[in-house]
Amino acid sequence: MKCAFCSEELPKGSGIMYVYKTGNIEYYCSSRCYKNGIILHRKINPKEMPRTKKVEAKAEAKKGK
Ligand SMILES: [Zn+2]
Predict the structure, then answer these.
(1) Contact at 8 Å (CB) between 40 and 46?
(2) Domain of 20?
(3) Which residue from 11, 47, 44, 49 is spatially nearest to 29, judged by alpha carbons?
(4) Domain for residue 7, yes or no?
(5) Domain membership flag for residue 4
(6) Of 6, 13, 17, 51, which has fewest CB within 10 angstroms of its CB?
(7) What is the distance in A from the centroid of ligand 1 to the CA of 62?
(8) What pLDDT, in 10s, does the model give residues 28-38?
(9) How many angstroms does the Cα of residue 30 sit away from the middle of ligand 1?
(10) 15 CA distance to ligand 1 centroid (A)?
């Protein structure tokens, strides 16, 4: 099975299995992929994720130097 977010192959018994009310099952390799995947399904802009903000902040710091 593959991670629903990053499509990385994950071995059986590892990762997170998420079951929707509709019966759809999705697997996530890590809690990060799980959070991102669930948020993406809720159609929230992934650019608003804190992780992206941190990366942007680092890039700006490098420009300043
Ligand atoms: Zn993943």
Answers:
(1) yes
(2) 16-64
(3) 11
(4) no
(5) no
(6) 13
(7) 29
(8) 999 999 988 88
(9) 6
(10) 9
Spatial CB neighbours of 27, under 8 Å, sequence gap ≥ 6: 1, 2, 3, 4, 10, 15, 16, 17, 18
Q: How many angstroms separate the alpha carbon of residue 58 from the centre of ligand 1?
A: 24
What separation in Å is there between the alpha carbon of 25 and the centre of ligand 1? 15
- In the chain, the number of structural domains is 1
- What is the distance between the alpha carbons of residues 26 and 47, in angstroms, rounded to a whole number? 22
Q: Which residue has the higher pLDDT, 55 or 22?
A: 22
- The answer to whether residue 60 scores a pLDDT higher than 90 is no
Rg (CA), the chain: 15
Domain membership flag for residue 5 = no
- What token pair was written down for 35? 């959070």
